[in-house]
Amino acid sequence: MATTNVSKVPLGTVLEGKFRITREIGRGGMAAVYEAENVDIGKRVAVKILAAELITSRVVRERFIREARAAASIRSPYICDVYDSGMFEDRPFLVMELLEGESLYDMMTRVRQIDVQTTLRVATHTARGLAKATESNIVHRDLKPENIFLTKDEEGNLLAKIVDFGLAKFYEPTAADAQSVRLTREGALFGTPAYMSPEQAKGQGEVDHRADLWALGCIVYECLTGQTVWSVDQGVAMILAQIASSPLPRPSKLRPDLPASFDRWFERALHRDAERRFQTAREFSESLTEALTGRDSDKPAPADDGRSDDTIVTSQFLDASGRAQLATGPDAAALSGANSNGRDFGARAGAKSGGFNAISALMVLAAITLGGYATWLYVLHPPGKPEPKPLSVGSARPQPSARPKRAVKPVESSPVGDVESDSYAKKIGEAQQLLVTDPAGAIEMLRSTLKSGEMPATRSLLAHAQVLLEETGKCKVTGIARPRPFQLDVPVSRPAIALTSKGPVVAWVDNHEDSRRRQAFTVVLDSAMRRISVPISVTPEAQNVRQLQLVSVGERLGVIYWEDGGKEPGVYARSLDPSGKIETSIRRLSSPRRADHHPSLAAASNGEFWAAWEEEFENNSTDVVVRRLGPDLEPKGRAVRVTALRPPTGPARQPRTVSITVDQNELKLAFAKDLGAQRLQVMLQAIPLDAKELAEGLPEQTAQPKNAKAPAEDRFIGTVKALSTPTGRNAFPKVACADEGCYVAWDDEKSGAITAFVDRSRGVLWHRQFATRGAGPQLSRDERGVVVAWYEGARLKLAPLTRDGVNTATASVISRVSGLQPTPDVVRGAKNGEWYVAFRDYESAHLEAFAVRAECP
Questions:
Q1: How far apart are CA 488 and CA 485, in angstroms?
Q2: Is the pLDDT reported for residue 360 higher than 50?
Q3: How far apart are CA 711 and CA 701, in angstroms?
Q4: How many CB atoms lie within 10 A of CB 187?
Q5: pLDDT per residue over 16-37, tens digit each?
Q6: What percentage of the chain reaches a pLDDT higher than 90?
Q7: What is residue 263's predicted lDDT score, i.e. its pLDDT?
Q8: pLDDT per residue over 636-686, tens digit each?
Q9: What's the pTM?
């Protein structure tokens, strides 16, 4: 049915005084996409506007806005950028990157079988985009050829970008309204049937990034063979039946020039057991390259790193043919949601499905496959029933338990290890205590507890404990914690940890008290790493806590975070007592601005603290700001801007993150400067504490004409040293200083985990890669020196860091991790060589917080 004229926006219309509509690009049942010009700077953009007849649908509006938040939260050259949003006559609109080119679907209609090199390039770019989405805890859930747009990069080479996050789902709940919870359960299917994974086809909302990798596997097959994986001519039910039980086709039969190694790759890419598929986008793309060049690779790649906490969920809309209504248009430019002619699976050139010719044979096939699907879905795998699986230490995700959920009981602080009252919980506590002296005995006790009942906490702790039997490196793990109450199964943020006189204090962010608000909670652990207090909300004023950090000095415990919701967003801090309870009022440190602040907190030797974060300034510049804080984290003076970095051309965020430490009489700040063209450079800034400029900050620049050139040089307080050559997009630098100098660690999408050393007298001595497939390195120090913790090969590792670098041969495996997870948190223990490491991992169908204690001689 044609869209009514009421949805058309007249050419020349200026939206919110900024975007002048110049032409219509495409139109679909939900939205129209226009080319527009930013009247201030002349930049051409794409504007996607919700159809006028749909503005009364709350669910449609929610989905539209969630697309904006999902895409805008990811920064990748392989994902179509969302720049802005607004309202036009009560209709929401998105301002997006204007792309010139065509969709992968359009290419497929012209080219029956796409060559190997083009397929590899498209798949690699798409996998990198998915990796960044997973890094932000987002699952696309509707990846298909229409949602992969082919354009050109600055050198004229083919560049693939993912578009249309209208069905995207964040892993974790945010401080959204109550509708967010309901939207997770509306509709039975999420995505386009031909590219659905088995877990999507079952109609269960709990799918993760591996569903997107399944879809990409289907797309790779389709590119190379010219056919869809499943026969799509007989409707949705037949497609779902094939996904459930039909054997996979063999690609080399349709295209004999494909190597046998690709057949084996394809079998793994579309394994019905998600645990046996590729677990990360990096593993997916690297194995594909090896397979298509004839070199088979059965060696699993490591888990990548992820760092974001946000989570939103959306609903699904299917038309009569069972496909999602949104698709990209045929021409150019961010057409996610503007479908010009509808998808006809059978009409694609060369995409014959090979069904039976005889009607009777087709009826028999339908009966068999539908019966198989019904058996698979309703008997063997009914929604809500856990998947029976043997325990595997390296498995990516334990399966969910059938145990009914219960509310967490408000138990007061109690004797050691006695907060959890269930019998299985008491056995877990006994195993945790035994782990200190007898790891093998503790593991047997956990196994025995697991046999008595399927408890997710038991299974996850057992999986982490079994890693200790690998006996790698010199460090010995003497405790494992699952700090939250065992009954909790709402997803958790990256945990933080600090040591006080009361014991280790662990903090995290979730919404278990109020589904509409993400708040920070703390608990205290005992000597066996068992929780001995109930969760305490330490941010009751907050709506959406992000980037939580704990810092302790003696009896003082500080918490810093940024508020991403409410009426006054920004960076906040407060002081807690040694038990992790609120001790002072909340302090807002930054201007009230909704932005990515990435705060960091460090203690000084005089009992004071220093905070650092990002803040936006003139000329589209994002710079480093610091503020001096008293012993109770009360602000001492105003926030001070310490960098004024020249913005790169095009959309940018610089610096990417900030890490601060107080080293002798200087502030040391590590950050990643955005150089443009998808390049970052890691920098280390040193500012003397007695510098006069530190009291006033850099002066604001005078207002510039609209067409004025950006400043030719960077401005900053103190000195700034470049620690790396221009690198990729995954730099998250961390800094720690010892007697001999300062160390900075970061990761890079091409080179893995990297460290640099800055000598006190001779400056930057080196930067070097220490783990090709490492991710998320984090630093800490004690009197003996600096240690680095990082993820590699589905393991969490710990090693000393010296002026000679990291000796990975002696690195210790201290736990396991699966999927893309945020950087771990590392703090020193009560004695030299003792370390506490908090991190996040999967437990059953949710993300959970864990911590370990390790002693390194």
A1: 6
A2: no
A3: 10
A4: 16
A5: 878 889 998 887 667 788 999 8
A6: 41
A7: 93
A8: 989 999 999 887 765 445 566 789 999 989 999 999 988 877 678 999 999
A9: 0.58
552 bridge partner residues: 557
The CATH superfamily of 1-98 is Phosphorylase Kinase; domain 1 (3.30.200.20)
- Does position 3 have pLDDT exceeding 70, yes or no? no
* Contact status, residue 818 vs residue 279, Cβ threshold 8 Å: yes
Contacts of 32 (CB under 8 A, 6+ apart): 3, 7, 8, 9, 24, 26, 48, 49, 51, 338
User: Comparing 698 with 668, which gets the higher pLDDT?
Assistant: 668
Q: What is the pLDDT of residue 352?
A: 33
Residues paired with 549 in a beta bridge: 560
Count of other CB atoms within 10 angstroms of residue 134? 27
The pair of three-digit structure tokens given for residue 450, joined into one six-digit string: 């697991």
Q: What is the pLDDT of residues 816-845, one digit of tens each?
A: 988 778 899 999 999 999 999 999 988 876
Instruction: Please state, in angstroms and rounded to a whole number, the distance separating the CA atoms of residues 668 and 684.
Output: 7
- Specify the residue for token string 């409707």: 235
Token pair 């209208």 is found at 166
Tokens for 37, please give them.
Answer: 């010009």
Helices and strands (DSSP H and E) totals, the chain:
15, 42
Write down the residue that tokens 């999927």 correspond to: 819
User: By the 8 A CB rule, do 394 and 301 touch?
Assistant: no
Strand spans (E) along 751-794: 752-759, 763-771, 775-782, 785-792
* Helix (H/G/I), strand (E/B), else coil: 856: coil
Mean pLDDT for the chain overall: 78
Q: Are 577 and 565 in contact (CB under 8 A)?
A: no
For residue 20, what is the enclosing H or E element?
Answer: strand 19-27
Report which DSSP code applies to 831.
Answer: S
In the chain, what is the greatest distance between 2 CA atoms, to the nearest angstrom? 89
Which stretches within 356-422 are classed as H helix? 359-374
For the segment 779-797, the average pLDDT, to the nearest whole number, is: 94
Domain 541-699+712-855 has CATH 3.30.1340.30: no
Give the pLDDT confidence score for residue 206 in this predicted structure: 63
Q: How far apart (Å, rounded) are the C-alpha atoms in residues 208 and 127?
A: 15
Q: How far apart are CA 101 and CA 839, in angstroms?
A: 42
pLDDT tens string 532-580: 999 999 999 999 999 999 999 878 899 999 998 888 899 999 999 999 9
Asked if the bond preceding 777 is cis, omega within 30° of 0, the reply is no
The partner residues of 95 in beta bridges, in order of sequence, read: 47, 84
**Is residue 775 a contact partner of residue 303, using CB atoms and an 8 Å limit?**
yes
Which DSSP helix (H) or strand (E) runs through 757?
A: strand 752-759
Compute the CA torsion angle 439, 442, 444, 448 (nearest 10 deg): -170
DSSP 467-488: GGGG--SS-EEEEEE--S-TT-
Per DSSP, the three-state class of 459 is helix
From the number of C-beta atoms within 10 Å of its C-beta (0-12, 13-18, 19+), residue 611 rates as buried
CATH architecture of the region 101-319: Orthogonal Bundle (1.10)
830: Cβ–Cβ under 8 A, 6 or more apart, which residues? 499
Domains of the chain, by residue range, sit at: 1-98, 101-319, 541-699+712-855
pLDDT digits (tens, 9 = 90+) for 81-112: 888 778 887 788 888 888 888 889 989 988 88
Q: Please say whether the beta carbons of 756 and 723 come within 8 A.
A: yes
Residues 6+ apart with CB under 8 A from 250: 263
Residue 119 CA from chain centroid, whole number = 26
Q: Select the more confidently predicted residue: 250 or 421.
A: 250
Q: Around Cβ 21, how many Cβ atoms within 10 Å?
A: 20
Predicted local confidence at residue 194, as pLDDT: 87
